Structure formats: structure tokens, C-alpha cells
Amino acid sequence: MRAQAFAQGNVLNFVPPRKVIAKPGTAVDSVLPLELRPGYHVNSNTPSDEYLIPLRLTWNSGPLEAAGFAFPQPRMEKYSFSEKPLSVFTGDFQIVTHFKAPANAARGPATLTGKLRYQACNNSMCLPPKTLDVSLQVEIVK
Amino acid sequence: MSRIHVAAASAALALLLASCSRPSSLPTGGLKSQAQRKPAPNFTLKDADGNAVNLTDYRGKVVLVNFWATWCGPCEAEIPWFIEFEKKYRDQGFAVLGVSMDDDGWKSVRPYVASHKINYRIMIGSEVVSQQFGEIESLPTSFVLDREGRIASNHVGLIDKVDYQNEIVKLLQDPRNSVDRGAGPGVVAGVAGAGVRAGQRP
Question: Is A3 within 8 Å of B125 when comparing Cβ atoms?
Fold first, then answer.
């Protein structure tokens, strides 16, 4: 709740993922391209400190089930404020979600919704954690 | 001067004035002049022991109000400095107040305070307090208050330790900032030597 007190613009933006077409009982991948404002970094999905907030993508239930994620290899970057290098993502990168279409998935178009949570810093300051709504157009076909 | 030049000069001047008058929620810099200082908004927040902390109770002290969070690396870099300042200057009438902006409150903050051996008072912040202090857009954001409870400086982001130290020392030594003018520079009658320790009232 306290994070809402911050008037933060998005330093991490995503390109809407391409529509996914899947047959029931099959697996399909979806790519979420992300663009981080230059000079900023976000903690990776596996931060190097327990207090750091990881990058996390979650999908709500729908016609596809998220079976796993593929994050890029994090960079170990040294910043002036930290004695040890931090596990971060910078620049443009992408998260791949491995979906499964259940055998009984209802046919037709649908929208899958999810959340992308991140926490960004630059070399001298941090922005509060932020959660973005993401959506994916899905079509289950024969 | 041709009309075009006059028009161009006018446009440039207008742009310059617009950029100067653009509201900057939290300008950052060194100590403000006496005339520029405005009273800090009061807040009442709970410390780790559940005791209410009123900022006005610290009137007569130089106070560093630090907005921070456990997930903020640059904030962590400042903590050892603040521990040192608290130790070094508290007997001269100085205190650090750490206002955490962690969403999960004491769940994260309590173990963090223990593991970092923080010796100054920590509270969990609120949206209201954050807004009272202006649009705090990033952490760390700190305000250094003079003994009259006025904002003498504010800093957004990590700055040099020596910058904080210089400001604190200047404010402690400034006779104009002494509440009890007769007590001498930087000394407040009935307060000097009392010190403020983590979890204690001022």
C-alpha cells in the first residue's frame, strides 16, 4: 500500500505479447518483450539478497496453464552503493512463459491476464516495487 | 533586432521562465538559508516497540528524517553512516529517524534492523506522511531539520557521507538554531547529553 504513495512512472515497459494459438493437450510458448529505461536495472528473478524484490511474472487461470518460465541469464553488476555485485536485468530483455493447453480447454478466443512485478533502481536511488497488468490473447483451436 | 530575432528571443525567454517555474516537488541541495526553511510537517508513527513517535517531540534537536526501505540498496549504503552519526552526535542534540516504506512493515523491517544493528529510531511510514513531505518518488529521500523543526536540506538519492556530516555539524553549531539561546551553540537546556537511542523517547 505504501508503494502507492510514490508517484512513479513506469521504467519497465512491455510490448504486448503476440497472440497464442494452441490445440488442447499441447504446449506452447509466449514471449513477453520488456524494455527497461536506460540507466536503470531491475532485480533478476533470483536476486542476490533476501531483501531484494525479484522480477516475477504470474498468470491468472484461463484456457492456458503456465507450466514454467524462462528468464534471461542475469547480469552480475557492481554498483557504487553495493559492496557485492547484484543479480540484475538491464536494457531490453524478454521472459518466455511455457504454457500448456489442457486437453479439456474450451475452444475459441480468450484473454489470459497476469501480473508483472518488478523493482527498479539506478546507481543512486530506487523506485518502489510496481506491478503491471499484462494480458495475452489466446485462441484454442481443434 | 529583426522581428524574427525578437520573436525567437521572446520564445527562448518564455521557455527559460517556464523551465524555472516548473514545479519541482523535491529540489535537492545543501543547507537552505534561514529564510528559505519551512517547518517540517509533523507526523506520529509507531516505533518497533509500539511507542508513538511525534516529530514535534524532537524540537530542539537537529534531526535527520530518512525515508528508506529494506529492498533499497542505496538506502542500505547510508545506514552505517547514520549509525555513526547517531552515536557521534546524539549527545549534542542530534537524532536520526528512519521511516521505512516497506509494504509489509515490521515483517521485513524488524529482522533487518536487528541484522544491521541500527541504533536509531525506526518507524513504518504511511502514504499520508510520504505525501506530507512532498512527492517522494524514490528512495532514499532524507530531510535534515534544524533545531526549530524546519527543513534545512533535503536529499533525494545517495549522496556523499561528508555532505550529510557537514550539514549536521553546521546545524549543531549554528547558534541561531539553538532553542535555548542562552545555552550556547548547539546546546539545548535539558536536552543536551540526554541522547536518543533506538526505542527510546527523545
Answer: no
